[in-house]
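Quick sanity check, tRNA-binding protein:
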Amino acid sequence: MEITWNDFEKVELRAGTVLEVLDFPEARKPAYKLRVDFGEYGIRWSSAQITKHYTKEELVGRQIVGVTNFPKKQIANFMSEFLVTGFADENGDIVLTAIEKPVPNGSKLI
């Protein structure tokens, strides 16, 4: 499906730094809860099924890409405030979208 440039501009893909990572045992599939700093867009929580490729310790301080203008979503007993982006590997496990060099938190993908 083809979209217009205006459609793409509506999606807020923003850089944020992971501040905290917690286990999420209530999730149906193994996941973490992430607290991420998006600069002027605030600190937000999300869950991510990224336990196969990442430890909690290596995620703290890492920049990720999140969709920050989706509505909040209830996941088990937790409210997700943004969508963590990534790609499925050959086994269906998620690999995070990478930011090659540090950018300011809240920067929008352009």
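Posting the structure with no commentary besides this: Helices lie at 5-10, 56-59.
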